[in-house]
Protein 1
Amino acid sequence: MQLLEERILKDGKVKDGGILKVDSFLNHQMDVSLFGEMAKEFYRLFAGEGINKILTIEASGIGIACITAQAFGCPVIFAKKTKTKNIAGDVYTSKVESFTHGTTYDIIVSKEFLLPDDKVLIIDDFLANGAALEGLISLVNDAGASLIGAGIAIEKAFQPGGEKLRSKGVRIESLAKIKSMEGGKPVFG
Amino acid sequence: MQLLEERILKDGKVKDGGILKVDSFLNHQMDVSLFGEMAKEFYRLFAGEGINKILTIEASGIGIACITAQAFGCPVIFAKKTKTKNIAGDVYTSKVESFTHGTTYDIIVSKEFLLPDDKVLIIDDFLANGAALEGLISLVNDAGASLIGAGIAIEKAFQPGGEKLRSKGVRIESLAKIKSMEGGKPVFG
């Protein structure tokens, strides 16, 4: 998606270790008019699939997910991160390893909001190692719901998450796909 | 706001200890079409005040804030919760006490996104003891920005936050104001 790629080139900042910071428009300050254009693109890609629920993960996926949900006319559920093991039987839970923070956390979603009849689109801001996305897919599978696909704002295609999950048959649509960070600049592909 | 009050009566669940659960439409599963109506009401209340930035706090404020920001045509910033003391000088920080969890955490916002010229509307899903709202107001003050007011989805008016902050001159507009929880049912006022 050209608009997003141009915005990344204009306002993204590449830090040491190839970390791309997009917190001026995507995940700290949020440009909701850009999100509106992204939502249109997700709708174009996934319309006609009968999607009735959007699943995301707190915190930075929530804004994009909500504005995308307006396009689909469906609700959003966000999986919550928790460090306390939930012993109640009323949630689906999955373990996620954070490579950024070197920690592991559980994500949970209430069973009452993810149902076998649901056709689910996962929305998130980033895809890199794919740990969060795998965790979300696991929640969808545990619920017996149908996963239609995942809509991602920015995929770091030089990290293994996208390839790994596509090879398992997951449909992933990333609006900006960074194939390398040459000389401190994202290169799309 | 009648639509929200009716929805609370229909889908809200009152748990032991007077806890109101609205996670089927507000803060776990999110009804974005309801959020759209709430956004219109916030816009009606605060239009003409020159608001150019909406500030909220992760996680459950983000959805309402983003959809409200569409009405105002401005970006959202969300304050991040953190347990690690941030020693870098590039963020404003404030301490928030969580009465629900019996813990204290820091909230931070990057200095580059909250500026002295900004006219800020704070949006959040709940107001009870007012700790989170006080923390957000403190960030706005630290930045030297102007606080126009706070738009809250549900205020528990039988808890002290709203009164305390209004008496300090903060304009707070709550779309549903619960004055008591008699017999396990919210009473609005």
Protein 2
Amino acid sequence: MSEGPPYDLWYWAEIPGRGEFVRLALEAGATAYRDRAREEGSETLARDLETRSGQRPFAPPYLVAGDLCLAQTANILLFLGERHGLAPADPGGRSFAHQLQLTVADIVAEAHDVHHPVAVGLYYRDQKAEAARAAKAFRDERIPKYLGYFEAVLSDRGPWLLGNDWSYPDLSLFQLVEGLDYAFPRRMKTLAGGLSRVLALRDRVREMPELADYLASERRIPFNEDGIFRHYPELDAE
Amino acid sequence: MSEGPPYDLWYWAEIPGRGEFVRLALEAGATAYRDRAREEGSETLARDLETRSGQRPFAPPYLVAGDLCLAQTANILLFLGERHGLAPADPGGRSFAHQLQLTVADIVAEAHDVHHPVAVGLYYRDQKAEAARAAKAFRDERIPKYLGYFEAVLSDRGPWLLGNDWSYPDLSLFQLVEGLDYAFPRRMKTLAGGLSRVLALRDRVREMPELADYLASERRIPFNEDGIFRHYPELDAE
């Protein structure tokens, strides 16, 4: 499905983070790309970011596509969705796919803020008391609200978020659920009964032939405690 | 510039919030719309939101445009930008405008989390200690980082974010700076010297003929302590 020179993806090499949402779309779309910081190190990324002007990214991930430099995860996916047919082409479907992606982005940001409620510039160990309070609210209110929303979307349509075919937000919802399962396994077990459609979708993405090689490869970075989804047992509960 | 039946905008009636970013684009684009919750009350909005399916919003604001129901602020603005010429039409310009809007959305979310670092479902008075710590980091690190980014974008191009003509992210940057000035006047005064391009852009939007009637009208909702940008003097400092 690829055309022209390969894309350059720039994202921190050590964590799945927001870069993984882009990587899943590139992989599922069989799109040629170079994962520059994984090849050359995150120091190279930091230097590259500093030298960019014009279509200047605020932060990684960003994707260089010929003359274009695209930043913001959802914006990159909007572009890839249109260019490689990873989302519906009609205005309603295109917009709803993007809306779903932005909603995934919102809960991803909240999942990060659970362990960094005071400041992204401080360590977790310097905000543990605040994180414990934030985690309770996230577990009790926010995870059910967001995943309940995606469950409702799947009950409107299904079996995929946009209906009969997979699109890029399905890949992102998969990554979100994987991350929540990693960070909050006890809570996710409690909620599983009300999330049958969301969990079935997660399983369906996990089995996509388009992703089989990638998910089994070393290119797929495991979740870890430097990333967005972190397993701190003291922040999880039933 | 309007075509077809007017749009229906749905957003909470009592605060500018995220709805204001949409309202500014509708007003500057001379686009016919009904501000449904301001006409009929926020209870009507809550009921409307509950009954929607299909293109189901996660939260307000959402815009009903014929058969389409669009949610997520940046997604609505992407649509209005294309439909009403409020952003460049070429792929690079369209994408960069959207990227800037998503970056505004990120700092808007962080500005909200300053007074709600633990949980959106708790009152400010129940998280004041955490908010004081979060505010210091936001003032010292995040405001300079984000506004410095927009300053750099304006130095690449200018006088508007996308170059010679205004586009929807300019309206949003105006609203962001107005909000930060309202919530953190002492800090913003300290930072002003390094933000000459951003502040000049804010002033330029404030004087746009397309916005004169609106900004002088009662439709323009003042910032207040139920919204995203709140003036709690104890959270501000030089």
